[in-house]
Write a structure and sequence with these properties.
Largest sheet: 6 strands, mixed
Distance between the termini: 17 Å
Order of helices and strands: EHEHEEEE
Radius of gyration: 12 Å
Length: 86
């Protein structure tokens, strides 16, 4: 299941979908556009999430979870690597 997250509003606030739920884990997005804001690179996501899709500059940036990370609440952030833009 993909989780599509729109870019933050002009005021810099993240939309509710990007903030996550109480059981979510910390995720870090690596790669992709050099100018992708830091605010979009750190987020909360469901522990079972395998892919994250970000709305950015009129398209979508796709990130896939790096294998070998447990993703349990309280653990280190799970890394998602950029795979493509559509």
């Amino acid at each position: 299941m993909d989780r599509t997250v729109p870019a933050p509003a002009a005021g810099g606030d993240q939309p509710a979908a990007a903030q996550g739920d109480a059981g979510d884990i910390e995720a870090v997005l690596e790669g992709g556009p050099f100018d992708l804001p830091t605010a979009l690179r750190r987020r909360r996501t469901a522990p079972s999430q395998g892919k994250i899709k970000i709305v950015y500059r009129g398209g979508y940036e796709h990130f896939e979870r790096v294998h070998g990370q447990d993703g349990t609440p309280g653990s280190r952030p799970v890394v998602f690597s950029w795979i493509c833009r559509t």
